[in-house]
Amino acid sequence: MPRTQFAAAPPTGSELSRVSGPATNSLAQLIRQRRDPVAAARADEATYGAVYALNMFGSQWIIAAGLDAAQEILMSKGRVFANGPAWRPLNGPFFDRGLLMLDFDEHRAHRSIMQQAFGRTALTSYLTSLHTIVERHIGEMSEGSVADGNPVLMHRRFEQLTMDVALEVFMGARLPREEAARISKAIVSTLQAAGAMVRVAIPGNRWWRGLRGRRTLEAFLTDRVAAAREGQGSDLLSMLCHATDEDGARFTDRDVVDHMIFLLVAAHDTTTGTLTNMVYNMAKYPDWQKRARARSLEMPLELGYDELAALTELDWVLKETTRLCTPIQIEPRVAVADTEVCGYFIPKGSMVVVPTLANHHRPEIWSCPEEFDPERFGDERAEHRQHRMAWAPFGGGPHKCIGQHFAGLEIKMVLHQLLRGFEWEVPQDYIMPLDMNATPMPKDSLPVTLRRR
Ligand code: HEM
Fold this sequence. Notes:
- The chain is an alpha+beta fold.
- The chain has a domain at 94-326 and 392-452: CATH 1.10.630.10.
- The chain contains 17 helices and 14 strands.
- It has helices spanning 26-35, 37-48, 67-75, 84-91, 104-114, 120-141, 145-148, 154-170, 177-193, 206-230, 236-242, 253-284, 286-298, 305-309, 312-324, 356-359, 404-421; strands at residues 3-5, 20-22, 51-56, 59-64, 81-82, 152-153, 331-335, 339-341, 344-346, 351-354, 422-425, 434-435, 441-442, 447-452.
- It is globular and about 70 Å long.
- The protein starts with a strand and ends with a strand.
- It binds protoporphyrin IX containing FE.
- Protoporphyrin IX containing FE (HEM) binds at residues 83, 99-100, 111, 262-263, 266-267, 270-271, 274, 322, 327-328, 331, 393-395, 399, 401-403, 406-407.
């Protein structure tokens, strides 16, 4: 394949290498990526080196493969890699002023206030309402399709469950059905607009619906902030209203609204997709379903913080699932100054991408990387402990997912109750068809046969 030199050469006299990459056009590139992103990344790295450039719709992306590069970029020690200018073109204006979009000092200041809503005390206070929602949804699964013996569309079920978590645990709202439907629709429209192909508002299109969805959420949340400030609620919105950093700084009403909108979307597809993928993996590998169930049956139905952490087999299945099918497949950054990564020159303004999904398949770290093998996370093998960035579905550095523990608690609580209540299977030759456009999602919503135990 012909090679193109990346536009900017290192300064004269510099010993840094110049980034190069395939002279393929954006469409061909996209087709290769969609077909098999891991194989495409490995082939490019073998041909062009660990740091290479790809044409991506009018701009060049520098892909920085490997774990050392991921560490250099995500830790951004010299504060040269910024989030806002990297994520905004991908996400559009829908999550502006969300934590992920802020950089450097401003990001640090906001994160240290938000951290209070994600510390152990706060997380423990969310557990009671999480448990109530999960119990309600698992109870509902016994009705309808299960009672009739028809396959259950698991992804759809989990979407409804995580939406109730968004309404009740995040916003403290048990809303009338119609109002809940209106707010759920606004969340979904905002989320879907970020991945729209047509990126201008035309009445009725995704972008337009996303802007409208964001306005609906802004109005709804603004109305609730005043009451949350007055009250003593234990929902996430109330926590953000009352949270302070060590110097007593707190969020303005506007900050709370902007952060809540991003939190609602950051939590939704990632958690739903992971739950669905875990159910799929435990249907394909029934031994793991049995092992995880055996552990859950040793425990009570309602679990506390430490007990959820003690669900060892579920923990390994969660780790292995997010290794193989990483919800956020790349982490983009923009270099705000000339810099270098692993000996390559990176000019100011470059889009630099950490390919997390491909990094999760590196054969020097993972034995048989394509295989589903949760035991690799056990103490004996501990393959993930070989490098700080070996297993990084929640990212790393200052922007590492602030909701990681919340997600772990929610996911384990759902599957703990599902394992205790049901057995499930898929036909032996079934392969879940994935839409890899954004967060990987099953195109068929994952139909499984659920049987009550
Ligand atoms: C399986 C579930 C989840 C996965 C895989 C995931 C993944 C990630 C990743 C990879 C990042 C870093 C992106 C980057 O550095 O460019 C991130 C950031 C973030 N996530 Fe999550 N996430 C999950 C669930 C959640 C949940 C449940 C919440 C909130 C309750 C949440 C809130 C956030 C926030 C606020 C950030 C921005 C952090 C910052 O910029 O400081 N995430 N997430």
